Amino acid sequence: MTAQVLTHNSFQDPDTDLVMAAANGNINAFQQLFERHQRKIYALVWRLAGDNAMAEDLTQEVFIKLWDVIDSFRGESKFSTWLHTVATRVAISELRKQRNWQQLQLTDASDYAEQLSHDEAPDLGTLDRLMLRLPPQTRAVFVLHCIEGLRHEDVAQELNIAVGTSKAQVHRARTMLEEWLSHE
Amino acid sequence: MSKQVPQQSLDQLITAAREGDVQPTPSRDLWAGIEHHLQRRVAAKPQRRSWLAFTWATAACLVLAVGGVTFYGMQSPQLAQQAPQVALLTMLNQQHEQQRQQLVTHYQTVGMQQSSDYVDAELQQLRTSIQTVSAQLVAEPDNQALWQLLQWLYDKELELLSSQFTVSNSKQLQQI
Fold this sequence. Notes:
The complex is a heterodimer of chains A (about 180) and B (about 180). Chain A has about 180 residues and is mainly alpha-helical. Chain A folds into two domains: about 1-95, RNA polymerase sigma factor, region 2, helix turn helix motif (Rna Polymerase Sigma Factor, Chain: A); about 110-184, Winged helix-like DNA-binding domain superfamily/Winged helix DNA-binding domain (Arc Repressor Mutant, subunit A, Orthogonal Bundle). Chain A contains eleven helices and no strands. The longest helix of chain A has 23 residues, at about 25-50. Residues about 1-5 and about 110-120 of chain A have low confidence and may be disordered. Chain B has five helices and no strands.
């Protein structure tokens, strides 16, 4: 069943052969998938977590989880899209356990940026450097909607928030980032 | 600075981030840790598969045996000749039950306890198989394949029972 669906979409998705091999237990194929996608997955989870060490741990967690569920991939979307969904869920699930996330979800502290010490890595791009200053939930909504391209409905579902909250958070993030950019 | 400029700048930065032109990268090799986890999982799989294969093999033997019994039974339903073989079956089952009890009693007497739920489940499955085959032998006592299967099931049950106590024994020795 899986093989048939994957074959149907194989002309669209360059990962199909590797996914099928990995689903059959081939670690070398899985490693090639890792090499192909690790940079984007790391960037996604880094932007959600805002921390190097946590992003590295989360990236490993994502690929270990992927090994467990890869045989459930049905080829109904591109593998990379599906992988990003898996990564988002693993990352959000872990971030929910963080104290900062819980506190800020309740208080939505507007002066969060002022509380941070900005020992930012010099090799970060401007946007990533500024995004670190956003409150975690605001940053998560901004990353998922503006960078990952999820619809507000999907962002709301992934983060367990209202659609209106997602829209408001994006507006807020953009306002804050534009303000900071104007002082760059 | 006009409001338009930071808006445009932000849109350009977002586009660059979407396209992966500028993105954070890990400072260390992440594959080694992942591979370590995966190899442990892969190493654990064959053991599960061997038990699965064992279960399927038992089930397949049962299906074949039942099919053979049914076919042979239709060919020669000589009920009068069954009595001695049914008595033999009863005796074999009793002997096996005694052997099983003696084995359990022996290990428990020297202080060893069964500890594995997984092996218990396997033992229960074997007991069920023995009962099924025995019932089929009552219906068709001349089926040689069924007698062989029954003997094989007896041996497997005793072997599995012993292995469970052996594992417990080694754990106890390690504790000592």
